[in-house]
Amino acid sequence: MTLDFSTLLPYTDEILKGLMTTVWLTVVTTFVGIALAIVVAYVRDGGRGIASRLLGAYVEVTRNTPFIVQLFFLFFGLPALGVPISATVAALLAMVLNLGAYTAEILRAGIDSTARGQHEAARALGLSRLQSFRHVVLVPAFSRVYPSLISQCIIVMLGSAVVSQISVFDLTYAANFIQSRNFRGFEVYLVVTLIYLLLAVGLRLAFEFVGRRLFAFLQGGSS
Amino acid sequence: MALVAVNDLHKSFGDLEVLKGIDLEIEAGEVVSVIGRSGSGKSTFLRCLNQLEHHDWGTIHLADQRLDGGAMSPGELSQNVGMVFQSFNLFPHKTVIENVMLAPVVVKQTPRAEARQIAEQMLDKVGMLEKIDAYPAQLSGGQQQRVAIARALAMQPKVLLCDEVTSALDPELVGEVLHVLESLAAEGMTLILVTHEMKFARDVSHRVVFMHHGHIHEAGDPQTLFTQPKTPELSQFIASIL
Questions:
Q1: CATH code (residue A36)
Q2: Which of A169, A51, A29, A147 has its CA nearest to residue A99?
Q3: In the predicted structure, residue A222 carries a pLDDT above the cut 90
Q4: What integer pLDDT is reported at residue A223 of this predicted model?
């Protein structure tokens, strides 16, 4: 067998289209998913009310079922209930809910490890629970769990390959599409594998770049 | 009329009664040191004064206003009673100036420019104006504690509570913090200190309160109290720390 990457050239547009889809799904999921996780972590941190229990159920269901089943449930299940949903919206929703649940748990570990003195100082200064969460607890909590958070976002990005199963034209869908036409499975999947690898590395570097700015306070030493 | 009036304060943790009826009146501008062995209830007493602990019985008034039992919101409380902790508890992700500005901006809704001005004034008072943009991790313990004092003062409280504020410091850093407290006292700030610094208690405070087993066992002006203790418990305590 000889490798011939030129067989991919006619499909550059498909690869780019798939790549763009994977990238925007990941970027939107990262922002919305983390925002969702912050809300969930805040409510669950507040005690055992109804909202807290409901969100707890959401987190547990999401973390204990396969992602592809969640995706199918949204894409095939919601229309059956009379809620029409497009493949793209279903994919985005599934990814956001997935990242939100895992990140909420990761973040909770960071919040739980907040020193008691921090809460007391905030209270003595008159901050409400929400103000204390937002201004005192959140950023240090993120800094403590940041490596886990990066990994989780990368896992969700890689897991997004599954959305090709409901005909979302992402990178994996593009690969399947091309391979079924030029029968060059090795070349196609090698290229796509490399693209995923670069995406993962790029995502990690982006996170680390943001982290260095956000958590500058962790660098001690002279001022 | 006393600035702070504490009446029959009781507090238990489970079966353990920590405060067994505290009565104390403190005048505006007075500096009161609370001393006693660990477990005598002195920190709990202090923490009741700004409601970090909720007492079970008794009342606390501040300038004739009821302070306890939810009579004041946390925001109002913080503008009446400030607190400085043993372990500083600065917010690590905020710079010095941000630490001091946070509560005025967020709780008091002071405009940022004005809050910054107040913060700079307070930092100047504690001699930390040059370190305005440093993070707490870049400061020594003494410097952190001085910032924590400025942070409490920025809410312009009527009383400042100090809970063993020098206990976590290296010996050579204790002086700079005590010096700040001394100048606050000279300015007429009302201070209530739980302290192990007996020299400071003797030299700076107007009154010393000795707590023992959840009671105020003995109280009086520092000279008399330290040189002529009336009770054997206080003599023993003084002997054990000197």
A1: 1.10.3720.10
A2: A29
A3: no
A4: 37
